[in-house]
Known about the structure:
Order of helices and strands of chain A: EEEHEHEHHHEHEHEE
Number of domains of chain A: 1
Oligomer: heterodimer
Largest interface: A-B, 34 and 29 residues
Helix content of chain B: 55-70%
Largest sheet of chain B: 9 strands, mixed
Shape of chain B: rod-shaped
Mean pLDDT of chain B: 84
Strand order of the largest sheet of chain A: 5-6-7-3-8-9
Distance between the termini of chain B: 26 Å
Strand order of the largest sheet of chain B: 6-7-5-8-4-3-10-1-11
Shape of chain A: globular
CATH architecture of chain A: 3-Layer(aba) Sandwich
Number of domains of chain B: 2
Helix content of chain A: 25-40%
Radius of gyration of chain B: 49 Å
Strand content of chain A: 25-35%
Number of strands of chain B: 11
Strand content of chain B: 5-15%
Number of helices of chain A: 7
Low-confidence stretches of chain B: none
Order of helices and strands of chain B: HHEHEHEEEHEEEHEEHEHHHHHHH
Radius of gyration of chain A: 17 Å
Amino acid sequence: MLLEVRDVHKSYSSPGKTVQALDGVSISLAAGDFTAVQGPSGSGKSTLLLISGGLLAADRGEVQVADQAPYRLASDARARFRAQHIGFVFQQFHLVPYLSVLDNVMAATIPTGLNGAAARAKELLAQFGLEHRLHHVPGQLSVGERQRTALARAVLNRPQLILADEPTGNLDRDSAETVLSYLGTFAEEGGAVLLVTHDDSAAARAKSIVHMVDGKIVDVSGGSGDS
Amino acid sequence: MSVWHLILREIAHRKLNFLLALISVAVAVGCLVGARTLLRSNQLVTADILAAKQQQVEDDVAKQRRIVQQEGAGLQDAMRKITKGLGFNILILPEDQDLHELHVEGTGSQTMPESHVDKLANSRIVTINHLLPVVSKKISWDEYDRTIILTGTRGEVPLAHRDLKKPLLDHVPEGTMVVGFQLHTQLGLKKEDKVKLMGREFTITETYPERGSADDSTVWVNLGEAQEMLGMQNLVNAIWALECNCATLDRVAEIRSDIAEILPGTQVIERGSEALARAEARNKAKATAQAALKYEEQAGQESLQREADGRALIEKQASDFAAVLVPVVMIGCGIWIGFLAMMNVRQRSTEIGILRAIGLTSTQILAIFLGKSVLVGLVGGILGYAGGYAVGVAWSEYAPDAESAEVLFMPSLAIIALVVAPALSALAGWLPAMWAAQQDPAVILQGD
């Protein structure tokens, strides 16, 4: 399994109340899986994604990525593990504003020191149609270009798992298509994708769709990618 | 891609933040270096002034010493000459001469060999000089019906081991006579007069002015003639001498000891008033000269000390001011750098979140922020050193030429500036960097 989440609980406490974000959630993704997570706001989708990515420790339950338990690693080791095995894509892109497109992608190699990173970065950017934008900063890019840059950064280190949080939320149709198409291809080539989205058409590209309500998985259905 | 690449790109992006931090470090280091350079300049100026002053004092003292020595020697010589007029003050007498008789009669009755004077002259004695052998006796000058003191002298006998000195009393040649004041005035005698004494004819060659002593009633003739006239061939009554200006406490005892060794069977008396007057006058002259020299030296040293005290006060005031100003400026700048670093961390929280998400460790995040602080410190230190040094040299009292600028350059301070400035900058940025490194990426990303 590339991602194994078992009986995970997570709650947030604030003065006077406790919110149960995840309540006994279990999910597993094998190589080639493309799973979409849908649900209303506050249903725990993003929390599930952060816990799956080794960024947020669960209160209870087990998480394994590529057959390793990231939360049993020390903080810095977990960061390096994340760099090697997981790629993140966010709705807000989260590009470093002062780095060029190429440097933003290359930033992912700081923790890994990947050999031949520059060539691969350029190759990916060309694949995403950004070869003419290598030395532009994010402020000079369209939103679609920014998300493609973020996608290139996410896959530079050849991760096995992509965690995408509303990656098409701010994109036009063509750009969204490019991103979703790539995620599909990534899964087909042996990776696994966990996509959090409100967008039904985006979710429909997944092999399976997990529906969450109040921190619980209430339904699992097949998407159009499930062939 | 490295952390340094990230740091440099961020600096290029947020120039104002970097510039403000840079100025802050440069001001702090510039303050320190400027203050130290000015203090060093003050020290060098002080050293120059004091060296010049010292030289001036030494020159003045040397000049004064020459003058004082010259004038003092002149004064002492003048005193010596003046007091020489007091005449002989040491009287060497036969041992059996009754001093009571000598004082009552004015002359002694006992004799000793004339050769004594030659023996004394050929000795190495240094405590006396101007030896004058005399034969003297109170007689009746029948030709004029007067009682006189007849003194025979052959003039001063030079000491063999000493330079010839101008005699106190000139030689009286044979057939000539020198007459004291009372005699020549009362008897109407004058130079070139021919007179008879004890049947012998003499030509008066000198008539003395009034001396107010027995000399006024004395007639001087050649020693040999006097000895013949008095039947005292090869004998003398006394040897007059002048004591040297010996610095010993008991000079008479010393003279007596010396003479007793050379001339056994003699006694020595000192004409106290003359001897004391002479010694005291010459000693006073010497003391006055030495006191004048000492005063000059003391005045010079006091002037030098006043200058040194004045400069030390100026340096202390400058040092005290720098001791307050520099820490205040450095602490202020440190707080400001810390504040700027904190602002930078806040501004970059999303960036920190995403960098953590893509795998950068907290140590790498810490390195990004501390690296920037060190760079700020290093560049600020260089600029601050250059600026502080330039201002220090420009404001220096030390002549701002190439050579003095080189003298004011302090390599140790440059090293301190280049090591301490980055260290302090890193220290000021430490807390914000730690804060950045400890930020939870999940919280940041959830916040977005």
